[in-house]
């Protein structure tokens, strides 16, 4: 169970801070929800409390792990499939895992691919989404500005 003020990660959406816990009636059913504010875009997301475990909600990483994420962006990248469909499915699976290191790996591989071969529309959209998920968690873990985090990500990714 999380509390107001906790910093959490909602896989496929990103990290945020629980602002409140509310009870709402939706489609005739009353449920309790975490209301999470995202640091990027000032968006709010309602998460049903009874679904927290099955959707993989977790605490954000600490500062030390955030440093490890930045360091992981400097390492060489595993060779990815040349088959667009297979590569897309593998990357989507990593993003859905909610693991920040997996998301960082997707960002790195897509940024490198964009620099060398370009990205399809689908992969460009995936890169933007994965980058926002990654940035949102690192912003909260390191207490930094989103633009500074994005700059750090971009400068750490090398071929």
Give a written overview of the molecule.
- The chain is an alpha+beta fold and 159 residues long.
- The chain contains 6 helices and 5 strands.
- The protein has a 5-stranded antiparallel sheet with strand order 4-3-2-1-5.
- Strand 3 (29-37) and strand 4 form a beta hairpin.
- Helix 3 packs parallel to helix 5 (121-142) and helix 4 (100-116) crosses helix 5.
- It is globular and about 50 Å long.
Provide a concise account of the structure shown.
The chain is an alpha+beta fold. Helix content is 48%, strand content 21%.
Describe this protein with a few key phrases:
2 domains; 5 strands; Thrombin, subunit H; Methane Monooxygenase Hydroxylase, Chain G, domain 1; alpha+beta
